[in-house]
Write a structure and sequence with these properties.
Helix content: 25-40%
Structural class: alpha/beta
Strand order of the largest sheet: 1-2-4-5-6-7-8-9
Shape: globular
CATH topology: TIM Barrel
CATH architecture: Alpha-Beta Barrel
Number of helices: 7
Strand content: 15-25%
Number of domains: 1
CATH class: Alpha Beta
Length: 247
């Protein structure tokens, strides 16, 4: 994912997988890079860093879904969000919005409010993926990867964000993270695996899922490739992906 409030770009050097057992039915364990021809839909995630995108060309290259960064903390809005979000839909891609969390800046409830006001609500229309929370290492202070918060405080922060999204949008957010960050910074919390789809970063193809999850449903497997932004793959069929958009 990206932290793009300035010209710098922070990308998680791992891969992402999101799995929902009720949707996928079975675990698909193969790494995306080794499963290029197995029919699992390609996707990607973008932010203002990618600027103007030729969405029809992106679809022609195989993209079937995209997550677009909407907000960060409680004060940043992606200035290109509307163009990227609406443009992807017009080209025939399933699309969703994500929020980049900065838990040290303000409460989970406050950041959820910002996200919901500026693109995070979405709707169950068969085209809009569930909203996503990007919570990972602190890009602003390498000495405080957990944002200076305790494990218990981070778990409360994530719960507050999720509860507000659920109250307003009627959907629990997808959680984007890495196994290393989650297990370290939340203390390996198992509180979210039952009702929050997982978007797991694992560029190596061999990382375990974080505590609390057994499956991953979307895989972010590279920071660059044939599609703009980070490279993702849905861990299931096209039909399951479309059902996910109505989750």
């Amino acid at each position: 994912m990206t932290c793009d409030r300035s010209t710098s770009r922070t990308t998680v050097a791992t891969a992402i997988a999101v799995a929902v057992a009720s949707l996928a039915g079975t675990a698909l364990a193969a790494h995306p890079a080794r499963a290029a021809a197995d029919g699992r839909p390609l996707g990607h995630d973008v932010s203002s860093y990618q600027k103007h995108i030729d969405w029809r060309a992106v679809r022609a290259k195989g993209a079937r879904f995209v997550y677009v960064k909407a907000t960060e903390s409680d004060g940043y809005r992606n200035p290109r969000f509307a163009a990227q979000y609406n443009g992807s839909r017009a080209a025939g891609l399933l699309h969703g919005a994500y929020h980049f969390a900065v838990p040290s800046a303000s409460s989970g409830t406050r950041q959820a409010h910002s996200f919901l006001r500026h693109g995070g609500r979405g709707k169950r229309d068969g085209w809009t993926l569930p909203p996503a929370l990007d919570i990972e290492h602190n890009p602003y202070d390498g000495k405080q990867p957990c944002f200076g918060l305790s494990s218990a405080a981070l778990v409360r922060w994530i719960r507050a964000f999720s509860d507000e999204v659920r109250r307003d949008a009627g959907r629990r957010p997808v959680i984007y993270t890495t196994a290393r960050w989650w297990n370290r910074c939340t203390g390996g919390s198992r509180a979210f695996g039952g009702d929050h789809p997982l978007w797991l970063a694992d560029y190596s193809g061999g990382a375990r899922t974080p505590a609390g999850w057994s499956f991953s449903s979307i895989v972010q497997y590279a920071s660059h490739g044939r599609l703009p932004g980070d490279q993702d793959r849905w861990n299931g069929t096209v039909a399951q992906l479309k059902r996910f958009a109505n989750r």
